[in-house]
Design brief:
The chain is of the alpha/beta class. The protein has nine helices and nine strands. Bound molecules: the ligand O=P(O)(O)O[C@@H]1C[C@H](O)[C@@H](CO)O1 and guanine.
Length: about 290
Amino acid sequence: MQVGKRTISHLKRPSYTYENYRETANWLLAHTQQRPKVAIICGSGLGGLADLLENKTVFPYKDIPHFPHSTVEGHASQLVFGDLQGKQCVCMQGRFHFYEGYNLATVTYPVRVFFLLGVETLIVTNAAGGLNPSFKVGDIMLIKDHINMPGFAGQNPLCGPNDKRFGVRFPCMSDAYDKDLSRLAKEAAEELGFSAFIQQGVYCMLAGPTFETIAECKVLKTLGADAVGMSTAPEVVVARHCGLRVFGLSLITNEVVTDYESQKKANHEEVLETTKMRTMDLQGLVSNLLAKM
Ligand SMILES: O=P(O)(O)O[C@@H]1C[C@H](O)[C@@H](CO)O1
Ligand SMILES: Nc1nc2[nH]cnc2c(=O)[nH]1
């Protein structure tokens, strides 16, 4: 991990002021004519989604005031503005994870910036391990709900003073994932002939960076989780707090190991390999969804 001056200041940073978010948003608004209504966060190996955009303006994270940067393979570090299906979009090629050492204010920093840019809809994507035995590697799971496991342990991005300019103190999360967007995505997938590998289910976020033990996988299954990953929930919590509509999807990149006799071992290389296999289908799905929105 790079231990540059900038990285350390982000790791230590306890929180941000409203003015920080505003400065970042104003800087972006001054440097692009685009006024995006849709933001897309690309998961591990899924940065190709940004290739869909036309009339692109690209900002390396390091050039954007107050913006963190990603340290994980499979995550470029740039914000891409552009058009998709006639809609102005902004796409994060590279997200920030708690396990990188960032606090949750940093992990979710871009989401509040998107809100201040005028974004109304957030599309989150991730690579995840399949817990549901009927899921296959390469399936795309439309996220119905999430379990924010770090939140159970007091790591919720909304802990701390509440700024009413973003949202209420006690936001509802029972409607975190927009049902209409999910229905449209299902229709979009059916039209593309993707029904054989489309699933719907519950995503569970763990802090990472370790993959799960066998006992942990068994627990997660009994809790009702269908897929497990290391991201997404904090971004969705912050997005819902400030009133963005959310659509999420997980690419099932690997089967979790639940058998003590198994020789299989989860690894990031397999995760990235699977994303390569499905990248065009994912792009088709997101593009067709945008066309329907
Ligand atoms: O950013 P996402 O959640 O897609 O990345 C997943 C979780 C870890 O960062 C990595 C593990 O392979 O993929
Ligand atoms: N926690 C976790 N994250 C993942 N990201 C991709 N696959 C996995 C997995 O099996 N477990």
